[in-house]
Amino acid sequence: MIVLSWLAIPTIRDRLVVMSKIFILSLPRTGTTSTCIYLLESGYKVAHTAFNEAAFELAEVVADTPVFIDYASLYSRYPNSKFIYLQRPEGDWLESIRRLLLSMRKRWLADSNFFESDIKRCFLAAFPEFCSKKEFSNEYLLSCYRKHQIAVDRFFNDKPEQLLRVDITQLGAGEKILKFCGKALGGSSNELPHVNKGRRITYWETIEHPNKVFSK
Fold it and tell me: What's the structural domain count of the chain?
């Protein structure tokens, strides 16, 4: 598996300090943006996608690309970290991920250089040949989803305390996430916000917040 090159290079600091992060490793369209905004407003420095060492080092929470593919390498680099696997009803996810992949494929065919190399690598790993597919059937998408889920289950089988599974539609999902992260609820709501509604898929880009960490 090819991962971000700097992940495989140990530094002096790595040997002296055991750093920890919070990684959201579920696939795109599972509520990653909503959870990132919730944690951002709860006081964490958050990167929704990260493509270089500076972004990873600055952020306390990292989600989406490349985490959903590179979580094993990230665990090796940050062994005391916590990982969050978000779940949503399969029917809702299917509709949302299909919309995203169709949009990405259209851009890919128009200009394959439009996307970061790590975006292309991770999406092709999770959704094989998505750039050349004419359609995304429920069977294909669910196969990709379940393959990723099985891989996550296997990886965390001997370290279950470092993985939180949470249904984003569950009452109190936000509180459950904050408790797992080690932060008191305080003034935060115990419910996650609902963003990226309908056809909107880039809500994170509109967020302005002092704790927001840019991807690169």
Answer: 1
